[in-house]
Amino acid sequence: MTERRIPLRVSNQKAYVWDVDDIATLRSQHHICGVLTGTLPHLSQQNVFLGIPLLLIPEEVVLLVEKQLAVLIDDPHAHRVPTQAELDNWNAARAASARLQIAAAETKEASEVSVKAATTEAAQQKRKEREARRAAAARTKALGEGADADDAKAAPPPTAERPSTPSAGPPAYTVSVPVSSAALRWYEPAGCTYTTIEDAREGGIWTYPSDQYERAKCGVYRDLWEKGNFMGGGIKFGGDFLVYPGDPLRYHSHFVASVIDSPIATMKPMEIVAHGRLGTATKKAHLLCGWDDEKQEVSYFSIEWAGFG
Length: 309
Prior knowledge:
This protein is of the alpha+beta class. The protein is 40% helix and 18% strand.
């Protein structure tokens, strides 16, 4: 049985994954993490809670397609113009789903309110009993000190109850909506699917890699990936990739990798010093990855700052 290939939906030369199960498969089985880019519609500027879609870096896309683990889909052209009947059915189904979710949320809220009301009544009863005990103790103490019995029987002033906070308006509920286009009747990816990078290049939806340096980055990424590493973007640490020994949620990266696109490329001494100092300052070793395009091989040199004397 042929293994299902994960659809990578391409738009503007960027590849996205919209299915949560596919995102989990990429991470758990194929060591591909990507970057979540989805945000909240009413807080579009926040970047704390990000969700789908998952944006893949170009090297991840090339690797997945070359390993026959994914296919590229020309997403804009996979959506044909829907008919009015299809739009009406889709709107009706979406409205029905929203009503069901709101009804379920209202039922849950009503149950929570009844539980809270019962808890509040029990708390009020306990408070009254506590106040009664305090009043009895105060009377006993007053009588023991020789106070008049009528004065000792005077009831304490009742405790004023806090007014309830008025509701600010009608309740608001969070409604989940499907984000993937796979279930849409007017989504037809069959004629817009590419199984190789060459076919996608001819179709005009994907151009990476287009030069020697980009080919070197793909080669280095593939070699490190085949060694069992997880990879991430390294621009924040002065390199091309971050190299993790396991899932980035559990491990810190051990290396910052910089790609050198030729075995005869030159590096200035100041660059080597800068890489070494920066890597040591961030508690990582800097990895120089030299790509030989003729042999299709990678040679590695690591740099760490060491004290002398």
